[in-house]
Structures are given as C-alpha cells and as structure tokens.
Amino acid sequence: MNDAVPAVTAVSDSQILKNRYAKIIGTGSGIPARAVSNQMLADELATRNIETSDEWIVARTGIRSRYIAGADETAGTLGLQAARRALEMAGRDAQEIDLILVATSTPDHVFPATACLIQGWLGNRKAMAFDLQAACSGFVYALSVANSMIISGQVRRALVIGADLISRIVDWNDRSTCVLFGDGAGAVVLEASSTPGVLSCAMHADGTLTEMLNTAGRMCNGAIVNHPYLRMDGQAVFKTAVTVLEQCAREALAMADLPVTAIDWLIPHQANLRILQATAKRLGVPEEKMIVSVDQFGNTSAASVPLALDRAVRAGQIKPGHKIMLQGVGGGMTWGAALVQF
Ligand code: UT7
Fold it and tell me: Which residue, by CA, sits nearest to atom 8 of ligand 1?
C-alpha cells in the first residue's frame, strides 16, 4: 500500500447506529370531517341494492365506523393537518425540516408530489420532498428511508407522513372491499438524536403477488387505461398478512437483539381486527399491548399506523422509553416492521 494514502478506518454499521439515532419527537393526525358508521354505510348501499350490515362488518373486521373525505379534502390537505399537529407536538418550526416524505397511493396529482404541495403550504422552500408508494406499508417504508437518511447524516429532521383517501379508488358497488376502508393521514417528526430512537427496520416486498391486491388503472393519452378500482383477494391477503407480519416483527427484534417481551406496544397495520389479533397471538404479545384504531377509522392504508400511533401517544398510553413495534402490509405485496423507542 502507498504510504501517502491515508489509511481508512473501517466503521461498522453497528458503530454508526450506536452514535446517531432517528427519534420520533412529535406525532399528529388529519381526519376528514365526515364520520360514517356501519349503519350509515349499510343504509347508503341499500339504496343501490347492495346488501351489508353492521353485524357482518363488525364480526368479520372489527370496523365500526370510518371517515370519508369530502370533495375539498385530499391526501395533501389531511397530510398538512397531520404535519402541523406533529410539528406542534415536537415544538419545531416547518423551516427546521430537511426532508418531507409522504407515503400515499392516492396522491393529489400525478406530479408534483403531495410532499411538495405540503412543503409549499408549510412555507418550507429548502427541504428534500418526495412521495413514496408502497400501498398500506407506505408509512413504515417511509420511516425506514427517513431513518437511513438521518443516521447517515444526510438530513437532521424529517417529516414523515402517511396519507390516503382509498374512498376515491374503492368500487362502491363491491361490498367485499368498500366497507373496509376509510380516509385519513398521520405524521411524525423524526430528529437526529444520540439517545435511542428507531432501533431496527425490516422491510420486504414480493412482486410476484401483484394480483392479490391492486388498483391497476393508469392515465394514458387523456383516458384511464385498465381497471380503475381497487381489487383484492381478501382471503389470500389475510393469510399472507398474518404470516409476513409475524416474520418481519421477529426479524426486526433479532436485528435489535431484543426478545418479544421487550415490545411495550404492538401497532400492526390496521386492516382487520382479526389480522391484528392473529399477529399478536403468533408473536406471543398479549392483546392488552396492542393498539387498535381500525374500529374507529377502518383501513386507512398508509395512514393507519401513524394514526394509531398518534392516538396512543395522545391518550398517554405510549410513554418515553417505551418500545413500539410498527408494522405495515399491503399491495405489492409489501410489508415491513420498524422497532422504535420513544
Ligand atoms: O390493507 C391490506 C388490505 N386488506 C386486508 O388486509 C384485508 C384482508 N382480508 C380480510 O380482512 C377478509 O378476508 C375480508 C374482511 C375481506 C373478508 O372476510 P372473510 O371472512 O374472508 O369473508 P369472505 O370473503 O369469505 O366472505 C364470506 C361471505 C361471502 O358470502 P358467501 O359466499 O359465504 O355466501 C361474501 O359474499 O360474506 C359475504 N360478504 C359480505 N356480506 C355482507 C362479503 N362482503 C360482505 C359485506 N356484507 N360487506
């Protein structure tokens, strides 16, 4: 080796992670004005001869109501609400944010990114801003990306938002899907810290499973080509979800070298209460440690995890030092788990 070339000191990944963490310092939600109970939805569908009932929806999914966006509400406006609340809790100004990341499958426009719209409304003119699409896993994916950018030193503070209006792409004539979803947004502010924050992220996808859950339509020459509504093989998604949610939680725990008993709160993607219960059971996490918001919001896709997180933080359930397992699963199929210390 040439003596003139300075020796490079190898720094292992674990050393970098030990020195710099991404910590959640604020959470927030953005919820549409209109709440729709199962009964209201059943009555509305009955006018079009589509039969469903509060009993069926509660028994099969645990959902009791959801919020449906009005004409002037979008992923951007709800995301903005969530972002403002998260910034307020964090005690940070929008100008202090270096990265705005919005996870959504229902963006306001093809482009510019919903993240850029929110950035503009916040009056921030310098942060890196982009959208990420990983369906219902979008928020945990985005958290993982923001975490990497913070621990690498590229950014100091990030606004990570999950926002979706699945009501806009659901087929309201298909009772097997339209009763499941709701609209909303959730956000967190992440900041570089020397005390533990995000402990591990285990993210995956299997692109051979695109037929299980998709919205295949796209814009082309001024028209929509392909099926414009969400389509799902419910039972296949159910089986896949419980399997991968267990796997990625165990992987995230192993990466952080922690046992299942270290989990103070489990927040799986809020798709169906039965999926949540099965995940907790497979992992051996008591149900009292599971945060449930699917009953109130339905499946809000990329918003489901940050909405549930914000609810639990504001209810005082999640306290400093607690370790939370956040989990997503959705179209792609995509899935992932992030273990986070508050
Ligand atoms: O974010 C990730 C995406 N989504 C999910 O994670 C969803 C995963 N899947 C599920 O949650 C469940 O599979 C569903 C809730 C979608 C369905 O529950 P299920 O227990 O698998 O019901 P099923 O599809 O086997 O349907 C049972 C019956 C059927 O009638 P028959 O064939 O037994 O006569 C359906 O036609 O229930 C009927 N049905 C309904 N009945 C009343 C389906 N939807 C409805 C409805 N109201 N809304």
Answer: 238
In short, whether 61's Cβ falls inside 6 Å of ligand 1 is yes
Phi, psi (rounded to 5 degrees) for 273: -55, -35
164, 307 in Cβ contact below 8 A? no
Peptide bond into 333 cis (omega under 30): yes
| Domains present along the chain, CATH in parentheses | 13-33+67-195 (3.40.47.10), 199-341 (3.40.47.10)
Q: How far apart are CA 2 and CA 223, in angstroms?
A: 63
Q: Which residues of 246-260 are buried (b: 16+ CB within 10 A; e: fewer)?
A: bebbebbbeebebee
Residue whose Cα lies nearest atom 43 of ligand 1: it is 176
Q: Which residues are catalytic?
A: 136, 269, 299
Determine the Cα–Cα distance for residues 316 and 249; give it in Å rounded to an integer. Answer: 24
Structure tokens, 256: 């952080």
* Residue 139 identity: F
pTM: 0.94
277: Cβ below 6 Å to ligand 1? no
pLDDT tens for each residue of 232-277: 999 999 999 999 999 999 999 999 999 999 999 999 999 999 999 9
